[in-house]
Amino acid sequence: MEQPAPPDPDVANRVWQHGMHEERLFHDRLNYFSFLETGLLSICAILYNKEPSVGVFLPLTVVGLLFTLLWLLIQTRHWAYCEHVHARTREMVPDYRVTLATWGGPGARAGWSISRPLALAVPVLFACTWVGFMTWLLLRAEAPATAATVTPERAAIFVLAVVLGWVVLRLRRAERRVKELRRRVEGEPPLRAP
Q1: In the chain, where does DSSP find H-type helix?
Q2: Helical pair 54-92 and 9-50, crossing angle rounded to 10 deg
Q3: What percent of the chain shows pLDDT beyond 90?
Q4: Residue 120 in contact with residue 76, Cβ under 8 Å?
Q5: How far apart (Å, rounded) are the C-alpha atoms in residues 76 and 116?
Q6: Interatomic CA distance for residues 149 and 130, integer angstroms
Q7: Tens digit of pLDDT for each residue in 5-19?
Q8: What phi and psi, each to the nearest 5 degrees, are found at residue 82?
Q9: Could you tell me the pTM of the whole model?
Q10: What one-character DSSP code corresponds to residue 121?
Q11: Which of 39, 41, 92, 125 could form a disulfide bond with 15, CB atoms 3.0-4.6 angstroms apart?
């Protein structure tokens, strides 16, 4: 069986550079939109503490949500294109293909840091924040109680903190399982719990 001719080094280098360029654009755009969304949320929080008026916040929230949906569309399209470039790079750059084959064991999916969670989860979390803020505005008509010890805001923050703690614990457990699975695939003895 004949082996295919190795790709021209200049072509392989151009494909590699293009892949690196696209990954950088992906992350730069992620940072840019995250920064803008955080700024818009900060402005809304400051204004909400001054005067919680539905007439001011409903348009701001709708704009924020539309902006987030645009971001989600852009990120998912760019992520799909980066996956295409990544596949082409695996074809064109033999050393990269070998590195990926030896990195994760049999059947593991590896490559550049472009991932679906970055493309989807971050914009979706911001969209959920905007929807939650809009829901809060529409359901809460009166001004917040200042003399009460337990306010709806404090209860919501407590619930969110508990949920966040639970998610962190689940992620740590999942990380340990992935490490243990990787050790088994690589043939190393499992680590014992201290």
Answers
A1: 9-50, 54-92, 94-103, 116, 122-139, 152-186
A2: 170
A3: 4
A4: yes
A5: 8
A6: 27
A7: 667 888 888 888 988
A8: -65, -35
A9: 0.62
A10: I
A11: 92
The DSSP symbol for 194 reads: -
**CA-closest candidate to residue 37, choices 125, 107, 96, 150:** 125
Distance CA 94, CA 97 (A): 5
Tokens representing residue 58 in the block: 């409903």
Q: Hunting for tokens 């999942």 — which residue is that?
A: 174
Query: Which residues fall within 8 angstroms of residue 91, CB to CB, at 6 or more apart?
Result: 7, 97
Whole-number Å distance between alpha carbons of 170 and 163: 11
Write out pLDDT tens, residues 98-110.
777 776 655 555 5
Would you state the structure tokens that stand for residue 37, as one six-digit string? Answer: 């969304």
Residues contacting residue 56 through CB under 8 Å, at least 6 positions apart: 47
CA-to-CA distance for 25 and 81, rounded, in angstroms?
Answer: 12
Q: Which of 171, 158, 160, 152 is nearest to 128 (CA)?
A: 160
Q: What angle do CA 94, 97, 100 make, to 5 degrees?
A: 150
Q: What angle do CA 3, 95, 20 make, to 5 degrees?
A: 125
